[in-house]
User: Fold Hemolysin-type calcium-binding region from Crocosphaera watsonii WH 8501.
Amino acid sequence: MKTLRGLTVIENEDGASFTGTFTVDGNIPPVAFDADGNYVAGGLSVFLDVKEVFELANQFDTFIETNLTFGSSEAAASQPNIFELILFEETSELTITIFDDIIEEEPFTYNFELVDDLEGSDYIVNPDANTGSFVLEDGLPGGPGVGPDVGVSVTESELFEGDEFTVNFTVEGDDLPTPDNPLTVLVDSGVFGAIGEFVIFDEEGNEAVEFEGIAGFPEVNGASASGFLVDLIAPTASLTLEVFDDGPGEGLETFDFELANGELYEVDPDNAGVTLNIDDTAPALVPNFGSLDGETIEGVGSNELTFGGAGDDLIDTVGGTGGNRLYGQSGDDTFILGSDDRALGGAGDDRFFLLGGDNTITGGQDMDQFWIANADIPPAANTITDFESGEDVIGVAGLDIGFDDLGITQQGDDTLISLGNDELAKLLGVTASDLTAADFAFADSVTI
Assistant:
């Protein structure tokens, strides 16, 4: 029922591929397609066991389907090595083209078997034609001892998030790289998504890696994003980049990046890889104290610890970058918050104007006002930990809306307040049905 053409595949040959041919002796259920030619129903469902599926995933480039398509049977979904194929005709083919990588590899055999012991297997396999295999070889040129020696090193191995460092490459021996003779090398960690630890593009989508002796922008090595490829055009080359600062929470992480042994280069055993230790431990908070009188504290930056004092204070973090802890203490305090801060009003009738998102606010004692939208929708919902219905007030300014325009929904023990598809605030421990229009204030503008 199944045969394979091309029992030996040479990776670097043009059109390197193998083809599985499926033949059916019997009737195939009629096949239905939509107006665009997409499969809808019918056909004969068969199951193919790809023995070395994970190894093949790193080698194949594309699928070419002839008179068949891939199915989505639950019986196959639970086993990563089993694939459902739906055959349309008595003869169907599946061709897999091979990606010509740069890695030096020993010949490897891939094995396949057509199976009929799964739920939905409404067929009988031919025991004389239910298996197949092919051997994948690198081909020439290349191989052990071919090409110059490549080494890699870094300027810093102990890093904090936000730090900049440089990766250096050296090439020694014959056939050194030049702009007319580039040498592609792969540096890989084996950790899925490891490249996400570094700033590759800035917030505007511009390239954020500086490089010398390298042709073109470094390329992430496929969907795994575990490493990168560079085209060296000089015996010494470098790329400089930053560790991505995504905030605390991951602790100390270690990544071992190693040069892959290439078909056209060898790895310098003394400089075969680098270890990066990345620490995202939160930096110490910087204290900022007010006085007994009313204070205006502006320009709070990041990771600061701010105490307002005993008076009526104004604390403004709009220009900061988050991570601040703000304490109004006693007095009727006013907070103007940016994003990613924690604020505690303390005693007194405090007001909180939430211009950014992802803040956590605790009003404290007495009657507090939480202005959750101020002419603009916040970029993310803010969290209010101690809202008291009948005492505190939720405010909305400058949006020309009323109570009936808001969405007030229960989420577990909490209440979510939204406007259309935009989430404005989450009230912890509050029952949505307890909120009424009397708990809200709506204004064209508010004087701070």
In short: The chain has three domains: 2-137, 149-279, 286-443. The CA atoms of residues 69 and 86 lie 5 Å apart.
